[in-house]
Every structure is written in C-alpha cells, then in structure tokens.
Amino acid sequence: MPDSIKLLSTPRFRPFFLTQLAGAFNDNLYKNGLTIFIAFQAASVSQEESNTLVNIAAGLFILPFFLFSPIAGQLADKYEKSMLIRRIKLLEVGIMLLGAAAFMLQSPAMLVAMLFLMGTQSTLFGPVKYSLLPQALKPAELVGGNAMVEFGTFIAILAGLIVSVYLIGIGNYAIAIGVVVTACLGYWSSRGIPLLSAGDPELKISFNFPRQMLHIMQDARHNHSVFYSVMGISWFWFIGITYITQLPNFVRYELGGNEQVYVLLLALFSIGIGAGSFLCEKLSGRIVEIGLVPIGSLGLTLFGVDLYFNQDLAVTEELIGPTGFIAAGSSLRVCFDIIMLGVSGGMYIVPLYALVQQRSEVSKCSRVIAANNVLNAVFMVAASLYGLIALSAGVSIPMLFLIMALMNAAVAMFIFMLVPEFIMRLLIWLLVHSIYRVDKSGLENVPDEGPALLVCNHVSFVDALVLAGCIRRPIRFVMYYRIFQLPLLSFIFRTANAIPIAGAQEDPEMMERAFDQISAALQQGEIVCIFPEGKLTEDGEISAFRPGVSRVLQRDPVAVVPLALRGLWGSFFSRAYGSAMSRLLPRGMLSRIELVGGEPIDAGDASLERLQQQVLALRGSRR
Predict the structure, then answer these.
(1) Pick the CATH number of 3-419 from 1.20.1250.20, 3.10.180.10, 3.40.50.2000, 3.30.300.30
(2) How far apart, in whole angstroms, are the C-alpha atoms of residue 243 and residue 387?
(3) Is 70 exceeded by the pLDDT of residue 522?
(4) pTM higher than 0.90 for the full model?
(5) What is the domain partition of the chain in residue ranges?
(6) Residues 172-204: pLDDT tens digits?
(7) Alpha-carbon distance values, 142 to 60, 82, 131, 471 (Å)
(8) Domain 430-619 carries which CATH code?
C-alpha cells in the first residue's frame, strides 16, 4: 500500500482531501452532464456544432481562473485557510442551488452562466488547496499528498462523468438534487479541516487586477525553477484539457463508440493518472524527485504519437458499446495508449506541484499558486482555441492529438534547456536506481530548513550523486576541481551549483573563492556538503580529515551532520581495482549500498577528531 494512502487516517489531511474530492466531483457532475447531453443525446446537433459547443463550455468554466486568480491568491495568503475554505464551500452551495434551478427549468442561458460561476468558485479554492499542503504535511509526505490530490481529482472527474450519465438518464431533477447534495457534503467535510495559520496576515488586499496580475507573476518568477515548473504544469493542463475535451467526439466519430465507451476510456485515463502518481511517490523515495518529470514527458509524447497510428476501427452509424469495442480491431492498443498517457501524466505533474510548494516562500506560496492558476487558465483557453481552430480547419481529432504530442516534445526540450536541473536529477535518479540499490537510515537528522554542514567519507566519484539522490533538500557540494571537471559528471555538478576547490599550492585563488562561496551558501540557509578527507580513498579506509571543515565552522558556526557511505568500495566508480571506472560493473547491476546519517553536532563540539570518529562509527566494518 502506498504511504500516501495512510494520510487518509490523519485528521490534518482527510477532511481536506474529502472536501476537494467533493468539489472536483461536483464540478464534473455538472459539466459532464451538459457535455454528454450535447455530444450523445441532442440528435439535432451536428458534429461541427457539437465540437464548437463542447469547446466553448470548457472555455467558459476556466475563464475565471484567468480573471480572478490574483484576488484568490491574496485572500489565501492573508486569511486562515480552514475558515476561508468553509466560506468558499458555502459559496458553492449557493451556486449549486442556482444550477439545480437551471436544470429544472432547462434554461440553456442559465446553465451556461452557472459554468462561469462554478469556475469562479474553483478559482478561489485553487490557491488555498495547494498552499495548504506544505503547511499540513511533513516534508517527507509532500509528494504523497500531491499524489493523493491528483489521483482524487481525476477519480472525481471519472465519478462525476459516470454518475452524471445515470442521473441524466433518470431525469433533470435527479442531477439537480445531486449537485446540491454534493455541495452540502463538501461543506460538511470542510468543517473538519484543522486551523492553519495565514501566510501573510498583514497583506493588504488590492482589487487593482492588472497590477496584482503583474505582482503575482513577479512572485512566481522570483525563483527560476519554480517559474518554469509552473510553466510545465500549465502545459500539462493544455494536454489534459485537449484530451478530456475532445474525448467524447473522438469516441463517437473516430472509434464509433457510445457513451459507455467514453466512460471506459476516461476511466482508464483516470486510473492511469492515479497509478502514475503513486508510482511517482514510490520511485521518488519520498523526496521531491523532479528527475521523473522528463520520463513522464517522454511518455506523453510516445503514447500520444502511438494513439494517432492506432486507428483501424470500422465506424458505423450504430454506436458500439464496451463489449463490441474491446472485441474490435486495435481497441486494446487504444486502451493501452490511453492508460499510459495517464501514467505518464501522473509522473509528470506530481513532482512539479511538489517542487512549487516546496521552493516557494511561505508568505507568498498562495500567490505563486494563483500565478500558476492564471497560466493554467491561459493554457486551457489556448487548448480550447486550439481544438476549435484545428477542427474548424478540417483537422481530424487523431491528427490534433498527434500535433499536440509533437508539440509536447518541443516544449519539454525548451523547458529542460532553460532548467537543466530536470535532466541533472534524471541522471542522478538513473544512477541511484539502476546501478545501485540504496538503503537509507538516519537521514531525518538532516534539518528540513536552515543552514547545516554535511560531512561524509569519500569512496567513489559518484558519492555526491548518491547523497543528492537520497536527501530531500538541494545540497551545495564542495569537491576537488578535477572531479568537478569530469565529463558528464561536470554537467551534473555545474547544474547542481557545486563548489570546486583546489589545494593552496595548486590554486590559492580558487581555494579562497570556494570558502567565500561556502560561507555565502550557509548564510543564505542552504545545506553544504564537504568530503573532509580531501581525496578519494585509495584502500577503502577513511583518511585523516583535513582542516577545511574547521575553517568553515570558525567562519559560520552551523550544526554538522555526519554521514557515512557503505558498500561503494569495490564498485565501478571506486579505486578498488586501481583506476576508477576501469572494470565494467564488477559487482553487477543493482548492488546494495547504504547511506547512514548521525545525530547533528554543534559547531563548538565539532572537532576534526570527533567528526572522523563519528563518520567511522557510522560506516562500521562495511566499506
């Protein structure tokens, strides 16, 4: 069972999860009821008119995210979050009462107006929803919490669709009762959300939307990796909205399926999102592992392209159900592509949301989320326009999916070039999870925030990569400049902003510059890691610690966390056989290694002798 499932037993997460689940379900209960009616039950509506109406409906719902996100972000930062959520859910109850009246009166104008109001309520909820998680959850739970939220959102989409099909079949009064009852249940669950302090209670609310739009974009751009992660999230929603919006007509006109086939494919997509989210949690080792984002992006392109080359079903006037669909042509391959698109999406989106939450300033987190929602809305509107323009120009839905998959490859390359940290983390993840199996213990001693100095024994050329792949926080490594300059590893070390250092006799200027960079990093609250032996071990034993550690602590007296690597001696990257990397994988693939952390030591007690003894004790007899 994924660790994130256990969060449902905690009162700090369960009421919030149920609240957002009810909200997402209600949105889709209403929207999908309208969509299914247009696509499948309105006999007088042509395919062209159906395409137009479906895309307009999607655009109206997401337009408020663009219009009202600045004020939503300010409110979420200024006020206590549980109180704000309860008021937003009461607003949903009022909107759903109007929506119920629209269903009963069968008023198209009123039904469309409710889509806009529902989008407004969702706009207010969005910044609270995502900025709440880093407050309510422990750092090690952040990836799992986001996995649960993404899984719940797509399950709610699926459930809203399925229930709307049956309620519409019963009658308009049934779906009218359903949306009101669900809104009331959402408010009831919101009452259990614990108190969560405001991020910036002194913030003055501004209703100057253009100025606030500019300000929240500036907040998002303040951190380079956060901003481009927001761009990546927005691109995901461009892809997601395109698939979800076009899926009803794709099923009917390209696959010849009825609404039950639509439900089947949307179910597979939702299950895939959940599986990808939980797989992301498993593969990340409970850290925010953005190295999985390129893997997810690659899957979105590969399976999107395959979906285009996977259309050999004979479409007839009589629409087929799930049984006939499964028995026909390449339907199983279509199903596989759809579920793998979901898996890829889950692996892509969860680390990006977790990174935005982790690296945004606490006092501005909601406004950064609001900026994310604005950009999401822009990309969603663009997706609706893309669908409208492409289909109006005669492009088939499969071709529209193919173009989008190829665009995804170009967008991914662009983002990864701007933020090479994604590729750097991918290389680290591949190393840690393909060549080695790493057992970790004691890493909770590494502080979740604030400056600290890590000291570790130096066994191989990839010691820094192993540490970076196992410790939640970004680390500034201090390393001998010749290792820093190694091919391929140099790209990783430069991207990780490592600090090259040389001996006093080799390059005194580089050495002084390195100590200045170490001090600056510690004063900015970062974690710095030093391998105090100053060189790779020649025999697997720990050499005498050099005085550089003492010099660092004299200038910046921070806590020191001793670490020890076990089992790397004798591996491909060690000098056990003379030169490192001279014998190809002498211990085979997935050899077991260990990283062990010890209790933090105050700077005043961190003598070289004590640090060396602690590292030696942590390492034990296994080299």
Answers:
(1) 1.20.1250.20
(2) 10
(3) yes
(4) no
(5) 3-419, 430-619
(6) 788 889 989 999 999 999 999 888 887 778 777
(7) 32, 19, 11, 14
(8) 3.40.1130.10
